[in-house]
Amino acid sequence: MDIGIVGAGIAGLYAALLLRREGHKVTIFEASHRVGGRIYTHRFPSLFEDEDVYYEAGAMRIPRSSLHLRFYQFIRYLNTHVSRQKKLELIPYILEHQNNDFFVRGQKVRLSESDQIKDLDLPENFRGKSARALLAEVITPWIQMLNDDFDKGFEKILEYDEISFRQYLRLVCEWPHVVIDFVELMASQTNQYDLSFAEIIVQNLDFDTKEWTTIRGGMSRLPEAAASLLDRTNLHLNTPITGITELDDGRISLRSFGNPGDSTIFDKVILAIPPAALHNIDDRPLWPFMKQQSIRAAHFEPLYKIGLHFRTRFWEHGARPSFGGQSMTDLRIRWIVYPSNDLGGDGSGVLLLYSWMTDASRWQSIPRKQRVELALDDLQTFFADSSVNIRDQFIAAHDVMWSCENATGDAMFLPGQFSRFGHVAKLQEGNVYFAGEHLSRHHTWMAGAIDSALETVASLLGRQDMAGLGEEYIRPKEGARDEGTVNLCRSISYVIPPHNNLQYVEEAK
């Protein structure tokens, strides 16, 4: 078959490689100048020789969890097929370091002492506990249920899909508003607890993981490696789709910007783009009402990231150095992420300031130059107890307001949206199919995009059970009739090798 894919994010690239593996012709149309979608590594000019200075403006970390197994299998698949220069190596990502201080209400406290913040006016029976401990009392039974059986656990969670996590804490757990706001401030983002109960529980399932990884040299190396395996003549960048037409014979015609009179016809099409990008295609079929609603109304939270390049890695020096991890503050910057690459290096470095939901929206209305100034002011306040002069250290800034980008933010559903849109949004419409992390049960993560792409391709090809990329290379069992063939069975373990810059490793039984 001749298949068109709209979108060269992780879902589109993964779907393309799956279809190529199965012997089909694939053409990808990408609106931006690069592949990767919300995977985006920005590089700053180096100050020193052999220095690679970057920050992750998009995806930046992956839990070493069985829920993300297909991501790690994808890494092994790519490393089997790409050139030596493009092979990917995983390095540890440090989610938390013992010296990651918090700064709240003008007080700088250690993470372990966050229960001692003054002037919070918490009720007596909630005092003496950290926000993390209070949250754990509520979510631990749900996390355990998901760990025991994700499918059954998710069904149980959906019983509360019609209410927000804030409503659950208020009405079911009977928390006072001041306690909810304290925990949300310390452990999440402003107004994020107004999202669906199911969304917040699944998000906390991922962050319950102890070990994390990232890609040496930047996450963008992943989509770039995937794109290198495709025929570049069939990968069209800077080519937004402006029209989708269903022909009488069932085939699909795609019209792209810049060629309004020309169109390309495909047997089937996969739309691997966020709902906002799909909504902005001028000419497309009018699908059923609830499908249209899912495109119009599915909630994507605002995300804002700013990377600040400094002359030295000053946060790794002083009385309480932070080697990776992140600090939380009620200042406008909200989260300070310390890089996990080049730890202890002598060169320059980048701090990432990260916010989402209402905290991100606050930055959107401010001119970029002022955003940089405010970020530097807040950092100086945070590091006021040190001898660091932030502006003397500062070199350059780069930021991304994802709600202003074609890729938008990430899917984080409002109450009831899993129930309303979870099924209908991913249903095919004729020979038009849909893929993306928002169509999975695992929003915001590359694993969700991969799961969705695999499910979509299996449906498109009419396959009951399809091996993912990297899942097809399981060695035949001892004594198999033909030991020279590839065994197309599913993985028999959830073992995630610590180093994936190697080719395939034997799966543990």
Please give the structural blueprint.
Layout: E1 2-6, H1 10-21, E2 25-29, E3 41-44, E4 53-56, E5 62-63, H2 69-81, E6 90-93, E7 102-104, E8 107-109, H3 131-148, H4 150-157, H5 165-172, H6 177-187, H7 197-206, E9 212-215, H8 221-228, E10 235-236, E11 241-246, E12 252-256, E13 264-266, E14 268-271, H9 275-279, H10 289-297, E15 300-301, E16 303-310, E17 326-328, E18 335-337, E19 349-356, H11 358-364, H12 368-382, H13 390-393, E20 394-401, E21 410-411, H14 417-421, E22 432-434, H15 446-461
Share in β-strands: 15-25%
According to CATH, what is the topology of the largest domain? FAD/NAD(P)-binding domain
Sheet with most strands: 5 strands, parallel
CATH class of the largest domain: Alpha Beta
What distance separates the N and C termini? 37 Å
CATH superfamily of the largest domain: FAD/NAD(P)-binding domain
**Strand arrangement, major sheet:** 10-2-1-14-22
What is the number of helices?
A: 15
- What's the overall average pLDDT, rounded? 91
The secondary structure category is alpha+beta
Beta-strand segment tally: 22
Task: Examine the secondary-structure arrangement and name the CATH architecture of the largest domain.
Answer: 3-Layer(bba) Sandwich
What is the CA-atom radius of gyration, in angstroms? 23 Å
InterPro entries: Amino_oxidase (IPR002937), FAD/NAD-bd_sf (IPR036188), Flavin_amine_oxidase (IPR001613), Flavin_monoamine_oxidase (IPR050281)
GO molecular function: L-amino-acid oxidase activity
EC number: 1.4.3.-
Domain Amine oxidase: 10-459
